[in-house]
Amino acid sequence: xxxxxxxxxxxxxxxxxxxxxxxxxxxxxxxxxxxxxxxxxxxxxxxxxxxxxxxxxxxxxxxxxxxxxxxxxxxxxxxxxxxxxxxxxxxxxxxxxxxxxxxxxxxxxxxxxxxxxxxxxxxxxxxxxxxxxxxxxxxxxxxxxxxxxxxxxxxxxxxxxxxxxxxxxxxxxxxxxxxxxxxxxxxxxxxxxxxxxxxxxxxxxxxxxxxxxxxxxxxxxxxxxxxxxxxxxxxxxxxxxxxxxxxxxxxxxxxxxxxxxxxxxxxxxxxxxxxxxxxxxxxxxxxxxxxxxxxxxxxxxxxxxxxxxxxxxxxxxxxxxxxxxxxxxxxxxxxxxxxxxxxxxxxxxxxxxxxxxxxxxxxxxxxxxxxxxxxxxxxxxxxxxxxxxxxxxxxxxxxxxxxxxxxxxxxxxxxxxxxxxxxxxxxxxxxxxxxxxxxxxxxxxxxxxxxxxxxxxxxxxxxxxxxxxxxxxxxxxxxxxxxxxxxxxxxxxxxxxxxxxxxxxxxxxxxxxxxxxxxxxxxx
Length: 524
Fold this sequence. Notes:
The protein is of the alpha+beta class and 524 residues long. The protein has 25 helices and 11 strands.
């Protein structure tokens, strides 16, 4: 039967490593293909890389029509890394207990870039299914961020196996490897399935991961396509509940009007019958029609390739290996500024501020992302911090540079609260631009009202400006905060205001003493 397009519109609208030395990975031929929506890089041959780019753009368009919206967050670019074989892919796989996970690809989200990583191993019969699977994770990240792992992987397995032919797409065709495993192995209790996360053995260990993926796919298939699609409205309600933060159990019971125990009995019967009926979707395009979007094909230099590989490792929380690649990238191509930005950010997060300053200063010479400018200013700000964590003064030259960098960061990311907070702090320490400091501190507090350090800074600025009443109101609340350092800082400023008689902030201890360490939070 033909699948109801309106259901699909509703469905997603809501929501030890390889022994090769590090340098050997980037010395081969690396290429890039830029499309309308993606940057695709890889060490695969030129035609394979072009085909991956074409098929992903095709899937982007087809999937976008299914959900009736643009499915990329254009503010966060997406890079697809394509490895030609398992040998070159293995050193970049996510690690579990120190060893590479048994995966054919993965999706890694980030605040500055998303990565889709796949391998085109010769034995892979469906070379693009992994890319489609990881693409779905990209969409779910933005539209259903609260989805449990089983739901995330189940939807990705279902949509990642979408088959295209002659103007039609087939959704939910039985996946032989899953069906066979479901028939031969005991199913996990649903309560156990719902508790699996990225650290669980069933997600990482080869002998257990198969049943997790198979059962997740089958459960989504049952909930979404079972009973000839008769549960479409209920499944949509279920996703709406999940998007609001409900657990899988509560969301299922509310949407389907049955207990999880009863749904589990029906699901087990569904699996035993093995009738995983596919649904047809009409009016899809020919993938080759998207060949024109695979533009700007070029070879990557060794420095560029090392940068991308290092950045991928950094985003998968492997900073030691990432640092090696970044240094190799700079040695091979000293004028490629993105590498300086990445290495500077790595050092900043490791609190190696002197080293971070060196690389971020170079990166900030050209237009960069907001975080480069913020972290450069932050690294400079740390040079004025004493051994006790207090700040007394900054030189006028340093103040000027920090202000310039923070204003750049704010322009690039108007909702990034730490930049407002740090600019207010710089103004306070410099004892200048106090009107600006007040506005910046208020903005930071409005953007992130849960940060007590932001409110504490606002109180300091009020005290410096002579607004003792406003300062006292904020400080009295902060003296009851759960953070002991915040309580101590707040009480100290209250005491100083009391001693000075709260008359003139220019005569208060706030204007004479160092700014407390509770105000200068670590970079985010």
